Amino acid sequence: MSDSSPASTAVLDVWCELQCPDCRTALEDLRALRARYGDRLELRLRHFPLEKHKHAFAAAQAAEEAAEQGRLWPYVEAVLARVEELDRGGESVLVEVARELGLDAEEFDTALIDGRHILIVDADQAEGKAIGVTGTPTYVVGGECLDGGKSQEGLRERVEEIVDRLLAQGA
Question: Which helix (H) or strand (E) holds 152?
């Protein structure tokens, strides 16, 4: 088997919202999955900003800017750690987090003003709705949609079962 075989990795789409306390809770599971699988599991952040959180759409755009600057997950984790602050402070918190991580904060500011990442966020949200995502976090892996918005109990174990199966099929 060649190393370039696509089946040697599994993909986990994480439908997430950066103003969502449940997504912050889910970080522990994501860290554990990353530790367990390393490069064999590709975690893909998918945006699903909810109407009830007024800064979530801006936060999703900011995450895309962080991805462009090469620091997506550190940024996502840092913003989720400050959900309450984001709630109160809005977009200035998004720029501040970028600055603290040593990213180009001016570029974040500009990206939020010019809306350069809106299409990506909109496309993710539309795709999420189309496949039945209703809340966050929701995981999609191996064709299964696992809703963590109601309860995250047993979710990581379920994800691990599916990923183990996918990796075994690829071996």
Answer: none
Q: What is the pLDDT along the chain (171 residues), one digit of tens a residue?
A: 344 444 589 999 999 999 999 999 999 999 999 999 999 999 999 999 998 999 999 999 999 999 999 999 999 999 999 999 999 999 999 999 999 999 999 999 999 999 999 999 999 999 999 999 999 999 999 999 999 877 788 899 999 999 999 999 885
Give the Å distances, CA to CA, from 44 to 2, 85, 93, 98, 171.
24, 25, 24, 20, 22
Task: Decide: helix, strand or coil at residue 19.
Answer: coil
Q: How far is CA 19 from CA 88, 122, 130, 141, in A?
A: 11, 17, 22, 23
Cβ neighbours around 170 below 10 Å, total: 14
At residue 73, φ and ψ (nearest 5 deg) are -65, -40
